[in-house]
Specification:
Elements: H1 2-8, H2 58-61, H3 63-69, H4 72-101, H5 122-133, H6 148-176, E1 186-188, E2 192-197, E3 200-209, E4 215-229, E5 235-243, E6 253-254, E7 260-265, E8 286-295, E9 301-309, E10 313-315, E11 317-319, E12 323-325, E13 330-332, E14 340-342, H7 350-360, H8 366-390, H9 393-398, H10 404-424, H11 427-433, H12 439-460, H13 464-470, H14 482-492
Parallel strand pairs: 2-10
Antiparallel strand pairs: 1-3, 2-3, 3-7, 4-5, 4-6, 4-8, 8-9, 11-14, 12-13
Helix pairs in contact: 3-6, 4-5, 4-6, 8-10, 10-12
Length: about 500
């Protein structure tokens, strides 16, 4: 354990490998029954076609492919049966010709010329056919020129024999050179693993090539088989979904010289977006892996398949390294090909992790608070407008223009907004903005000017005598007579 920690790091605490790697996989909480697979581990599809009816005649229309797809025992049986029947049939034809011509009774007469020399029974006719078909030519039995029907039968025998040989021998050759046998030397890991890689939750499995010959243009694809129900109520028992293993980046194109780890990043576009360690105990799915490539030696396309059920996906595991550098070459240790070990992995799904990240982040950004302050200042302006409309008309005339309070408050609100924004500026810019003679002093002079304008307008509205008494700029009440002063006070109250 200590040596393993020194090699891989202290963060990997518990080590657990699969059966082929020298350890046991982590036990499941509740054992399940035997899982019905769509694709076996060896790549065979568990699908049987039934109730074909009249469609079964389509197999006879493509008899050659049907013969190639049969099992070896049926191929050998058909091979032997076809040659046996053909030989017996042609030997019978030669015996019938000899029988009809009377050659069987005159076989030992030296003065008689038969159709086939030295054919006097069925075994001798069968031997003549085999010698002719196999081009052995012992020279003891031969066709004479006194038998034209024998010459015609000989030509028919040669054509029929060539057709049978081409059909059966070609079928056996193709079946022996099928690329399915090349797939036997392509390996897949027994388990798939889910752990963190590059900061993202990733589904991983391993592929390898046992031969030194390469797989040209090797490409890998993954299908997720899972039952689901559509919003319309339709039930799909084996719905096929594509798992992205690097289509956009070209990672699905493999250079399969050494074992490779195939990765599927679980994100919002992945079918495993809601998958967590807890939900794996209730989910039922199957991951079908398809590896295709061209065999370098024969140029034929080869396809290898395997599958992983939910029980064969290990959460929080990673594969052991199998490549080591030796003296002048890289060595692959296939004894650790299926081995995995545990690594720290969050038990939550990607969706749950994103939701927790959003809950931990602040909900109200600064821009929202600024908008709220602006809205409150506008509400204050509206309230002041309502108060201004409730004043007496005389006081409204004294104040001058009706939109004076609103403009003043708007100017003050813009000043406060500027002050708020000034707090977000750097210190140098704040010092520059605080220099005397800037916008704040201009704003103060503008407001005092606006305050003095209504007073000047109110004095201009007085009679000429009262304007003279006011002295142009002093206090008006101090120069009025007592009667006018009283009248003025009663007027304003």
């Amino acid at each position: 354990m200590s040596a393993l920690r020194r090699k891989l790091g202290d963060e990997y605490q518990v080590v657990s490998t699969s059966a082929s790697g020298g350890g046991l996989p982590p036990p499941r909480s509740a054992p399940r029954g035997k899982r019905q697979r769509f694709v076996d581990k060896n790549g065979r599809c568990n699908v049987q076609h039934g109730n074909l009816g009249g469609e079964s005649s389509r197999y006879l229309s493509d008899f050659f492919t049907t013969l190639v797809d049969l099992k070896w025992r049926w191929n050998l049986f058909i091979f032997i049966l076809t040659y046996t029947v053909a030989w017996l049939f042609m030997a019978s034809m030669w015996w019938v010709i000899a029988y009809m011509r009377g050659d069987l009774n005159k076989a030992h007469d030296d003065s008689y010329t038969p159709c086939v020399a030295n054919v006097y029974n069925f075994p001798s006719a069968f031997l003549f056919f085999v010698e002719t078909e196999a081009t052995i030519g012992y020279g003891y039995r031969y066709i004479t020129d006194k038998c034209p029907e024998g010459i015609i039968l000989f030509l028919f025998q040669s054509i029929l024999g060539s057709i049978v040989d081409a059909f059966l021998i070609g079928c056996m050759f193709i079946k022996m050179s099928q690329p399915k046998k090349r797939a036997e030397t392509l390996m897949f890991s027994e388990h798939a693993a889910i752990s963190m890689r590059d900061g993202k939750l990733t589904l991983m499995f391993r592929v390898g090539n046992l031969r030194n010959s390469h797989m040209v243009s090797a490409q890998i694809r993954c299908k997720l088989l899972k039952s689901r129900q559509t919003p319309e109520g339709e039930f799909l028992p084996l719905d096929q979904l594509e798992l992205d293993v690097g289509f956009s980046t070209g990672a699905d194109q493999l250079f399969l010289v050494s074992p490779l780890t195939i990765c599927h990043v679980i994100d919002s576009k992945s079918p495993f977006y809601d998958l967590s360690q807890r939900s794996m105990h209730t989910e039922q799915f199957e991951i079908v892996v398809i590896l295709e490539g061209i065999v370098e030696t024969t140029g034929m396309t080869c396809q290898a398949r395997t599958s992983y059920t939910e029980d064969e996906v290990l959460w929080g595991h990673r594969f052991f390294p199998v490549i080591s550098l030796e003296e002048g070459f890289f060595k692959v240790d296939y004894s650790q090909f299926h081995a995995t070990f545990e690594v720290p992995t969050p038990p939550y799904s990607v969706k749950e992790q994103e939701e927790m990240l959003l809950m931990s982040s602040p909900l109200i950004p600064p821009a929202v608070s600024n908008s709220k302050e602006r809205n409150s200042s506008v509400e204050c302006l509206d309230g002041l407008d309502e108060v201004g409309t409730k004043l007496p008309s005389k006081l409204q005339k004294i104040t001058g223009r009706d939109d004076f309070p609103k403009k003043l408050l708007r100017m003050s609100s813009t000043t406060s907004e500027k002050a708020y924004s000034m707090g977000d500026l750097p210190m140098k810019l704040q010092r520059i903005s605080s220099v005397p003679g800037n916008s704040e002093e201009k704003l103060g002079s503008k407001t005092t000017k606006m305050m003095s304008d209504p007073m000047s307008q109110s004095v201009a509205e007085l009679p000429p005598k009262l304007q003279k008494l006011s002295g142009g700029g002093g206090r008006m009440e101090g120069h009025l007579p007592p009667k006018l002063r009283k009248m003025n006070s009663d007027r304003f109250t």
